[in-house]
Amino acid sequence: MPEAIPSGFRTITPYLAFNGAAEAIEFYKKAFGAEELVRMPFPGPDGQMVVGHAELKIGDSMVMLGMACPEQGSVAPGGGGASVSIHLYVPDVDAVFARAIEAGGTAAMPPTDMPWGDRFGKLVDPFGHHWSVATHIEDVSPEEMQRRMAEMCAGVPAEVV
User: Fold this and answer.
1) I need a labelling partner for 103 at 20 to 30 A (CA). Which of 14, 33, 127, 141 fits?
2) Contact, 54 vs 62, CB < 8 A?
3) pLDDT of residue 27
4) CA proximity to 33, closest of 66, 59, 2
5) Strand (E) or helix (H) holding 39
6) Do residues 67 and 44 make contact, with C-beta atoms less than 8 angstroms apart?
7) 90 and 96 in contact (C-beta within 8 Å)?
8) For the chain, first and last CA: distance in Å?
9) Alpha carbon 158 to its chain's center
10) Rounded CA gap, 133 and 120, in Å?
């Protein structure tokens, strides 16, 4: 069984939303010496492939980022919503998610087993901040992750992806 928090991550990881995530990655590499560890292309609204998700290491810390998805409450800065969410790794995502909802949070997506090997859910706290909560349940190779993501996105209209 893999560790609940994957190797290299801390308990909390920022997740940044962008219009132009590929350009942001290049900026962070030049400006902060970021090391690109993961880049997952997704079909964008116009059908062109964009950075749907990426993971960068800056110093001893991880930053996740990807394309803005306004229909899921994730917008780029200046887009009138949340451009940053906090990604929280915990040993039991279902228990923590339930506790957060009971405490006044609003469920945006219940915990679900995801293609990248996390059981993952999203919520909004009573103050409007967006949180994703996850437990790492499986180590998945980049090739298998891509296959699973393609399978998950099959049949999803481009404007939703």
Assistant:
1) 14
2) no
3) 84
4) 59
5) strand 35-43
6) yes
7) yes
8) 31
9) 19
10) 6
CB within 8 A of 87, min separation 6: which ones? 12, 13, 14, 15, 64, 131, 132, 134
Instruction: Look up residue 80 and give its two tokens.
Output: 């009138």
Joined together, the tokens standing for residue 97 give: 């998610």
State the average pLDDT for the chain. 85
Residue-wise burial string across 123-132, b where 16 or more C-beta atoms lie within 10 A, e elsewhere: bbeeeeebbb
Instruction: Report the SS3 class of residue 62.
Output: strand
> At which residue do the structure tokens 């939303």 appear?
17
pLDDT for 64 beyond 70: yes
- Residue range 24-54, pLDDT digits in tens: 899 889 977 889 999 988 887 777 888 889 9
Give the pair of three-digit tokens for residue 45: 């609204």
Ranges of beta strands (E only) in 100-143 are: 106-113, 118-124, 130-136
Is pLDDT at 105 greater than 60 in this prediction? yes
